[in-house]
Amino acid sequence: MAAPPRRDDSRIIIHFDYDCFYASVFEAENPVLKSLPLAVQQKQIIATCNYEARRRGLKKLQLVREAKQICPEVVVVLGEDLTRFRDASKELHAFLRSFIWGDRVEKLGFDEVFLDVTEMIEYNVELLNAHDLLNSFFHLDKLDPTAGFAFDATKFSGPTFPPSTDTPAPAVSSLAKGFGDPLRLRLLLASHLARYLRNELEYQKGYTASVGVSTSKMLAKLAGNVHKPSSQTTLLPPYLATGPDEESNVTRFLDSHDIGKVPGIGYKLAHRLRAHILCHDSDLGPHETPTPLTDNKVTVHDVRCFPNMGPLLLEKILGGPGSPKDIGTKVWGLINGVDTSEVSAARDIPTQISIEDSYGTLDTFDAVKKALVSLAASLIRRVRTDLTEEGRDDAMQPEENKSSSIKRIRWLAHPRTLRLSTRTRSPPDLNGTRSHIYNRVSRSGPVPQFLFNLDDNIDALAERLVHENILPMFRKLHPERADWHLSLLNIAVTNMVETAGEHKHSSGRDIEKMFRRQETGLLRPWKVADSDINLTEHDVQGTPTASSKWKDDKLDPTHECPRPLRDSSTDVVFTGDMADGAWVDSDGEDSTWSEPCRFCGVLIPHFASVAHELYHTVPE
């Protein structure tokens, strides 16, 4: 067996998995449902159900008919429209993100979130008072010392693996003397942060979650599955074996897991590994469905301890055409508890927006068009929801009128590519059964500009989008007139181009908003505005008249102006030649700012007079 890969346990990762998410969304809308058996229906199956329904014998992916027979009092709600789930997921993601420094928050599906809290933990470790760990304080904000929560730094919060009775928490004295394990101390603080975030999520949003705490995404996700629901698990050190005959807690934790349960090892990879361990033929085509093996369970321990197991053998088992590069090295790391994948920084803009639905069969043009229009309408709604933001148009409003400013909707990004994907259903064989087809065919084109008209009706836009853009792509994919046997349609927009704005991911500054802000914001006192001036207040000699006397009588009306008066909005100067009070032609030469050359008589500006005289003194 090859040596295990090198570990890097410098990070602290917390994984959130919302409990019965689909059902919890309905329970948050109607709290009465929390005490009732609740099932969410999609098509003819139970997509999920709450724990009260599971206690009465229901389970996921069960036929609705069977569920009602087992539990007649079950409350069944339709969940085929994913809008409410998508909105709730975004709300919870934004809520958790508001606590985490550096935006290291990654959403996985609707109901899972990874949090990289390394910076927060390291900062709070430095602030720990080793002589008063019982009364520690976790700081949530570097700039606000009052933002945070009190906790007991002498013990972990919540369950651990192994249980705390097997590996007791460090004594106060050992930590005070600096003998504590640094990794253990960081995980201890992370367990209290996880508990605080779980409580805030439940009290403020009404959702519970199962949480895992470790040093990688894989270990944190698996740790969160140990105690469910509404609980948490911290994977304790040591993460490295302390002796040749010793096992680390990571190895003890992973070895009992089925190989297919390890994140990063999908169904086909797990099938190939099981086939090799159990001496089955594992040759599969790139699109061939694996045949289920026997009920023999193949664990991580079985694979890791198999003779000659290592990256090279795994590459031989799992490699081949279409396989990811270095798949053997990656899987060898996973079964040894090493996962270096980063928690991606949170994105405000999705990389693509996709809507799809599956069908029994679509064979006629009218049925296809109706389905495409429905999908297009849903896509436009999602595009408007995910790619626009509503803000107050207060750049044109004075400070005293900010409360009455108009709300504007602006685009955060514009998709450039429209894609249509379809999947056909294979014809039945002689026995009447159909083999599954996983391949999709797709066609792409540019997104039409009319899609960004926010004032247009969504249904009208959907009809136009299907007629002008999607149906031509469909005809290129399926030139036949009928009998397509379609089982799936997908419409997506991709290739997002972010617009100008003030977000850190924006492509630039919003020039329109910048100019409006200059007109009404900080530069307002220096704004140059066109205005009329009453020339009768000044005589032709540039001296004030009696009517221009200051109200406080601080200016003597007989006092002469030291220089010609100038209007605040122009550079026009009033001189004695303006007997009729007319404006000076702005295209003419202003003698006040020029003087005639004593050599040639040409009017020369003051700033150029010296250089002009030098010109005359230079011999030809």
TrEMBL record:
Domain of life: Eukaryota
Family matches, as InterPro entries: DNA/RNA_pol_sf, DNA_pol_Y-fam_lit_finger_sf, DNA_pol_Y-fam_little_finger, Rev_trsase/Diguanyl_cyclase, UmuC
Region described as Disordered: 537-570
One Pfam family this sequence matches: IMS
Domain UmuC: 13-266
GO molecular function term, any single one: damaged DNA binding
Biased composition (Basic and acidic residues): 549-569
GO biological process, one term: DNA repair
Name by which UniProt lists this protein: Putative DNA polymerase iota
Upper classification of the organism: Eukaryota, Fungi, Dikarya, Ascomycota, Pezizomycotina
